[in-house]
Hints:
By secondary structure, this protein is α+β, with helices and mostly antiparallel strands. The protein is 18% helix and 39% strand. Strands 1, 2, 3, 5, 7, 10 and 11 form a 7-stranded mixed sheet that branches. Strands 65, 66, 68, 69, 70 and 71 form a 6-stranded antiparallel sheet that branches.
Amino acid sequence: MWKKSKVTDQTAAGQAGIKKKSKVPGVMITQFQEELPEGMSTPDFTRKPIALTIQEGKTAIFKSIVVGNPKPTVTWSRANGEIVFHPDVCIQKYDESSNEHTLEFPKVAPDDADTYKCFANNEHGRAICTVVLNVIAVGFSKTKELQKVQVEDTADFRKKLKKRNPDGTREEKAMEPEEKVWEILLSADKKDYESICVENGITDFRGMLKKLNEMKKEREAEIAEFVSHINTLKHIEVNDDDCATIELDLDLKDPASKIFFYKDGVMVPLTKEECDGQKHSLKQIGKKFVFTIRGLGKDDAGLYSVDVGGCNVFSTNLKAPDVEFAVKLQEIKAEERQDAMFQCVLTAPYDDLKWFGKKAPLTNGKKFEISSSEDKLIHKLIIRDCVPLDAGIYAAVAGVKSCNNWLIVEADKDPKGKKGERKSTMAGGANSEELEKIAKEQQERYEKEMAEKIEKAKQAQAERELADAAAKLESEAAKKDAAEANAAAKAAAKAEAKAKKAQKIAADRAAKEEAARRRAGEGGADGGAGGAGGAGGAGGLDDGLDEDELSNSESDSAEGGPAGGADGAEGEGGEGGEGADGADGGKRRRKKRDGPLVPDTVIGDEDEDIDEETAKQRKAARKGKRAKKMLEDGEASAAVGKNEDEDIDEETAKQQGKAARKGKRAKKMLEDGEASAAVDPGVHFHAGLSDCKAIMGEAAELECKVSSEDCKGIWYKDGEEIKTDAEGVTITQDGSFHRLKIHKVTDEFGGKYKFEADGRKTEAMVVVEDPPRFEAEDLETFKTSVTVKKGQKATFKLPFVGRDPIKVQWYLEGEELSEESNIKIEHTEGCSRLLLTKLQRKDSGEVKIKLKNEFGTVEAFSQLIVLDKPTPPMGPLEIIEASPSVLDFKWRPPKDSGGCKVDNYILERNQIGRNTWKKVGLIGPEAKYRDSDVDHGRRYCYRIRVETEIGTSELMETEDIQAGTKAYPGQPSAPKVATAFKDCINLTWAPPSNTGGTNILGYNLEKRKKGSNLWSAVNPPEEMIRSGKLCPVKDVIEGMEYEFRVAAINNSGAGEFSVSSEFVFARDPKKPPGKVIDFKVTDSTYTTLSLSWIKPKDIKGEEDEAKGYFVEVRPAENTDWDRCNTNAITMTSYTAKGLKSLGMYWVRVIATNEGGEGAPQELDNYILAMPPPVRPRFTDVKIKSFMIVRAGNSARFNINFEASPWPEVTWLKDGVPVTKKVTISNAEGMSQLLIPSAERTDTGIYAIIVKNIVGQESFSIEIRVTDEPKPTGPVDLDENVPGTVTISWAPSPDEKKDDRLHYMVTKRDSHKRQWHTVADRIFNNKFTACNILPGREYQFRVYAKNDMGSSKPSESPKWLIPTKKEKFTVNLAESKPCDLQCAPKFLIPLKMHAAPQGYECYMSCAIKGDPTPHVTWYRNNISLNTNTNYFISNTCGVCSLLILRVGSKDSGEYKIVAENPLGRAECTTKLTVRE
């Protein structure tokens, strides 16, 4: 028999666990119980996570599959630090279809590298496996560098936060936004990190966490200097009385530490007392600090911080939303067992409104129903089934605003004391339509304000853009003017230089020509011609010389003729040059742009979600900007044209005309753009259609939301319009929501759906899926466990539906089954069957069927239980008692009881040394036995078998057990030090109470030095210590500290050692200590005094250290001191009890040590036994302010209060002291007012005034004494207006006595004959009833009512307005006889039946025939009409046959025959009986 090692598993709540190995390597299982219940199992992994080595930035996924019954819960952890679950960091998922648990890292980082553990837990055990994640860092990481910079900046930022004055206060300056965010994060819960980051635009979540952890560590170190422990930090809460509170539980190291309160970094003045005129106050109750902010308003929003000394301890943010109460709560008067409803209307949508009832927050439940309208403007609180205890003040809190009012519950006055019936009416819900109207107005006003704000923002943005564009144009124009001026100056200088050069060239050329003419002889004419040509050349030179010619001015021709021709050519070329200049001037000069070219429209991915109308508006705005720029350019060009010289050529005029036209077009474009920008955007979608996956046979719905409630739209499917009366669909509109609902999805409903409204459209796809599924009844039948005996067979069958092909798989205990000799699997259309034969006990377990097709997977589970003989009992034995006369022991039940409960255990006994076994017999189902037939000193062995209804197990043979063992003595008392010296320590101890049945022979004494683990014997083993009265220990070293223990010895030997003594020094006796320091009273009551002090100083050679203290008190009238504690206390505080109230006492403390008692330290003055002064305060949470008492009964009112010293209690009635008839009883903290026999004159307002030296407090209650009213006088009826009756009556005699008396009128007519109320709460003596019909007799009753109930009714005479009746005649048409005779005919035939064995079977059909046919039932052609095993009936042509318990003999062919005189008909069916 192998043994399992037991361990203690901390996660199992201290239970002993058994370590087991899993089939999957690397998985460790801890079982919390030694034996598991039937069908239960510990968690285990069928698939464990696989170690990963992955590149940084990739996605890492760990997958695992766990099994166990009950279903285990899966958690993850890491070796270093905690896992941060965030969508960008780490996600834990579970897939129900595949049963996979995953841990996913979307973008793995080097910080994620670690060893991870996966835990699977259920109530029976725990499974653990580990997995390693390695991350490969790639290249330069921007995030790492950024984090390094952030880490370097953290210290500087903390220093920035810690700038304080020498006294610990902060610098007087407002906090920056970044400082506020970090201070909020330092005090926020982890679950709020994500929302805070989103709100403040923090995107680097990992960097924030790292920086925050470092700041937290630094702040914890700072807090530790001032605070020992922080228990509770409660964020700011807004109450129903326009107050906000912050609560902290702080254990301050120095009670005198200063506490500062800041708002947005600026210190707020505090008061210690709660005064109505003070805005901020601080109240301390022990270690609890409560900060209160009164009269909340929008200016109170901000970050509030609490500092202790020079360190920030806690910060919390108070938000003040822009919301007010448009309609406040109204007072509600409800009757007992009636529902009451409070309603309020807000000025803006608000989702976080809180309700309070009698100062306590309310939550949505059965008693209180909290709801709000769709637009979040109307908020409702419904109190169900009101009782008198529900009466009180109810409040609604929205942000920093609140409103409240009373709920008054009128109790039912049932004289028998029975609980009234539940009322179906609602109190306070009458003005719902008016509230909805107000809410609609508020919604319109809110939307209008928001639209105005948006429009103002748009206008401001447009003005900013126009201003920027104008500034840009001005700067560009200035640059352009400067450039043109510079170019003009350069051109003028160049032209002047060119003119001078041309004159010089012309002069030189003329001189050369003159010289040539003189030298020429006969060729003078030619020379003249050449001169002419030269002249022409000169002219050409003046007009057409270019810079190249000017630069080559020294070259000319050698001969006159040729030179002249050349010159002439040059002249012509000059004229051509002039033409070229004109041509160049006529051409349009292309404008050069500075900077890159930018298209007018930039299309990107950023604004994909902007609707079409918004895009049009933006386009119009850009058009307006371009137009304005063109307009300015045009005006500038026109202005330049006016200032130029009048001799402008034609081309320049054209350019100026174009510029002017350009300016006009720009102005028109600007006006059009502004007009387009102001156009109403029209209807647009707030939420479009979403793709939908619909299940075959189920309902599906498409929904979209538009911006207008008045918008109508059209639905399309695959391009065709869907009519409102289309079959199978319903089209509805609820405000701005448009819905299309498909009642029962089929294949024809799949396709593309479109909704179009006001030119806008949205589309979605409906995909029809037909996954496999089970019927609920079939699934419940399948879940029923199947129990069989060993060797028998078991059948599992389950029908299903779904689109083919469907893959069917059967599993047993997680392993897939296939066709074998003992496993048969049959598949038919819509059904699958599993047959298991020759079953063994090991085949027990979970049976699962799994269906899968293209649309999904479904599973169903059942249990198979195979019964067999039990296994042997389990050891080892646990011996409870082994005395000389009795052996009492127990063992563990069998590991497997075979699926049955244990009926008996069968025992046999053998005495060691003999060969025979004695049969003990059946001992019952409990696994224990007490054998009293034993001999002292003998050894015995037992054989144990288990018996169940299936059979008997194999035997388990136990180890030998001896009857009677040695009895050792118990433990002596711990040794006490009598005296101690440097060379000897004297000890004493008391002998053990349990001597083991014999005398104590002596003792063994051991000693041990402090800090050592080794005990050494004081006396030799053969020389025991005879007595423990005074034992000297001389083997000690001076100055060493020792402890001792002792063991008693009897005839059996030495027993266990005693508990160790206290440590004692081996040194001479000490000197008494001195006086205690700073002795004071910390608290007091009427019977107790709390004291504290500091231990006295240790002066070497004069006063040694104190080891304890005695507290003594002395009444002022006595001279003797009474010691409060008989044993010295080690604490430096003490509470003296049992004092007389308001008694005067002197108190002192005496320090003591081994050297004796020191000098006493007394208080300077006597102390009065009374608590600190307390202002009177009423302590009842719920105090009635109104009470109704029946005349003659007693009126009793109790009220509790607290005050110190004892207050003076005064009762007043209507402002004057109460009469002697009223009995006042005062006790400690309580006062009672009693009116023994109340009369109507006792009605009034009673006030209690509680007053002492500190202050006073008062409370008023209205007590109304009344009785059931007397009935009214005679009732008269009169008809002033046709169709109405005026009821008038004489007033009740009690009307003058009771100002709350009113009347109720009920009516009964001859048609309904029941009384019902037509009017209530009538305060005059007349009422007009309407809708009085002629021909009916009416009667009325009048009741007088007050707070106690109603009077007896006063009835009116009967009222009848006669009516004339006209004669009514009916002319009946003659009827013709009809012949209905016909031969028998089956309207509904019999159906085929297949019934399980032992179940009932019901067959039925419908027959037609006249005369009524005779019906006969047959089975296999044998008549059943006379067989009593079948129940046959024929009701109105419906013939039925019922078989209560179907057996194999009932299978066969069934036939029914119907006969009458006109013919014969028959119908057959078959019955199949399943095993």
